[in-house]
Specification:
Strand content: under 5%
Helix content: over 70%
Structural class: mainly alpha
Number of helices: 5
Shape: elongated
Largest sheet: none
Number of domains: 1
Length: about 120
């Protein structure tokens, strides 16, 4: 719901702007609402598709597509496929978690093997 409110708010104020000019604030303000903490969640395919529908609806409104028309090609050429966005967020989270585990194990090793005076 918040995603749609943010998208409608942005798009209602820039109706005469170019499509790619409209896409920039949508990516900057609406997409983070949709993908907040998504990398930390192991979502089922059904929920990923539901979130993808929200992103598709935004592209339909931006490019003037009807509900039954696919926007996959437009998203592909813009580099904004939701499946790709989800996988990238998941990869970023897992990489950061791995680095954090490495830091904790290094600190534990240093603490347990420190020279006592």
């Amino acid at each position: 719901m918040t995603f749609y409110k943010a998208g409608n708010g942005i798009l209602s104020h820039c109706s005469t702007a170019d499509v790619f000019v409209k896409l920039s604030p949508v990516k900057a303000y609406c997409l983070p609402v949709l993908i907040y903490c998504i990398g930390a969640l192991n979502l089922p395919v059904v929920q990923i598709k539901d979130l993808g529908v929200c992103w598709n609806d935004c592209f339909r409104k931006l490019f003037g597509y009807k509900r039954f028309e696919s926007v996959k090609e437009v998203q592909y050429f813009c580099g904004e496929s939701f499946d790709l966005i989800y996988e990238l967020q998941r990869w970023k989270f897992l990489t950061a978690a791995h680095k954090l585990c490495d830091r904790f194990s290094c600190l534990y090793y240093l603490q347990s093997h420190s020279v006592s005076e």
